[in-house]
Amino acid sequence: xxxxxxxLLRLREMILSGELGIDERLSEPRLVERIAxxxxxxxxxxxRLEHEGLLEALPSGGYKIRMFDKQDIFxxxxxxxxxxxxxxxxxxxxxxxxxxxxxxxxxxxxLDRILARERLSEDDFSHYMSANATFHDALLxxxxxxxxxxxxxxxxxxxxxxxxxxxxxxxxxPESRQILNIAQYQHHRLFEAxxxxxxxxxxxxxxxxARLAKRNxxxxxxxxSAASQLPGLQLIKGATAx
Length: 242
Known about the structure:
By secondary structure, the chain is mainly α. Helices cover 68% and strands 2% of the residues. It folds into 2 domains: 3-65, Orthogonal Bundle (Arc Repressor Mutant, subunit A); 70-235, Four Helix Bundle (Hemerythrin (Met), subunit A). The chain has helices at residues 3-17, 28-35, 39-52, 70-93, 98-115, 122-143, 146-156, 167-170, 176-196, 199-222, 224-227; strands at residues 55-57, 63-65. Strand 1 and strand 2 (63-65) form a beta hairpin. Helix 5 (98-115) packs antiparallel against helix 9 and helix 9 runs antiparallel to helix 10 (199-222). It starts with a helix and ends in a 15-residue tail after the last helix. The mean pLDDT is 89.
């Protein structure tokens, strides 16, 4: 693994896990010691995380961790929905071949098999996250748009904005099965719209699908046990677990 990648992944992990304090001033020399990489990869990682929205540059030098309120998160989810709507529209307009659609159908079938189980284990939720990410990646590939890919990648890097941001935190909640079933229903309708070349319908479905994440956040924050499983909970203003 390249040093720059190691620094980026480790620093993001330290922020979301709470290992780095909210009020802590993040400086290159201290992070070099803690992450055990040279100064240049640390500098690159700090700039990248500032662009992603996790950090804010301080006028006096260094960085601090950014805090979010629920509206910030809702706006990030809405932005993702707008971009994914454009992705879905472009995918439908491209009229993908049967072979190309198979890349979207495979994770869809995997999700069906997972949700067909009577009870979902923690491993099932983990496998759901993986298959869900594969579905969304395949959808992005069907759009064949480097501009949309770059924009969506930047958007989903923001905390709580990715398609699977709340899946593991929902594990064990009574509402989790219903939420996942609704999401999967939307996946199927989206697949059908793209297959039929219905670009406007595909765009509307993708936007509505992203908005489901708003309800997911509300459900997670209503349950202390679920909120405690949410990486980065401490970054949400007013949110506590326990």
